[in-house]
Write a structure and sequence with these properties.
single chain, 355 residues, mainly alpha, two-stranded parallel ribbon, 20 helices, 2 strands
Length: 355
Amino acid sequence: MRRLLQTLRLTPCARVVPRFIEPFLAQARIHLKTGDFALLESQLAQLPAESYEHFVWRLADDRQTPGWLKTWSRAMPQSPHPGLLSAYVDISNAWKVRGETYARDIPFLRRRRFPKIMNQAYEKFLGIIETDPGHAMALAGLIHCNVVIGAGDGHRDQWMHAAMLAQPFHCPVIVQYARGTYARWGGEVDEHYQFAAWVVENAPAGSCSLVIAAQAVLDDALSASEEIDDIRQIAQHLRDEDAAAWLRQAILKWAGATPETLQRRIGSIIATHGDDYHVVCLESFALAAYFCGATNEARLLFTALRGRLQAEFWEYYIPPLPIWMHMIRSGSRGGGRVHDQVCRDLGLDPRQVCQ
């Protein structure tokens, strides 16, 4: 029956799967509830930077986290994690007050309130780097606060430099700095591409920080979606041979591949890193390749992705629907339909891709 519904395009072939960090997060919550902080810290020490960032953001969103952090801090007063998490709890709370809309559209009272909450996080991050100047996640937090509310104006490059000295091309730092280069966050024209090009040129092969090349393309697509409803028309608007060649270079460097070995390397990445941030990079590169016209790479990456979606950006391109259809269609299904439509535009059968 499901196959028939997919054939009739009534049900998407792609599906939303839990974020890669969820299994680790579930285990971490158990440790927090039982007070087994030493074991949790030993496990956190083994997480890559980009996975630790997702753990921090997701745990900061949990209502029980402030209580757990107090117990954790009392049990292990020298631990750096509770203080860092406390700052990210403040950022999470600030975003809940602010909302995801443009600053000009935020109601007046909330526009006054959310910077005060985020400034609490900023002060905590400053306290962390006073004792540990190279704490990359705290530096990423400072950059985030600077981009969003202008805290520490004029110090963003200094924090970036400190992070590069401590942990070169630390993915969370690079991603947060890149946000500030987007036009919607005050960046200059093409500044996001200039920064991404610098990362592509200088980051080591295999680094997840290379994903900002894909994110630069996706930010342009998001801007275009404010005027264009059809994802195919967005792709036609963004398609560019030079951009496709540049993104192809970023994909090859991220995969540690040549054009001839890319398919094999992608298979190896999925086998080795199928449960970490690399799968989010794969999603980002796949859709970015489609938008800028790197068609062969897009086909390869969409096939490797197998319709398993984690990222939220698919939902940005759901075409406008009548209100009654929004009531019966979830955003996740809408994102699946966007994926399937892109597959068909690339000449792929989403039923085969998603097997």
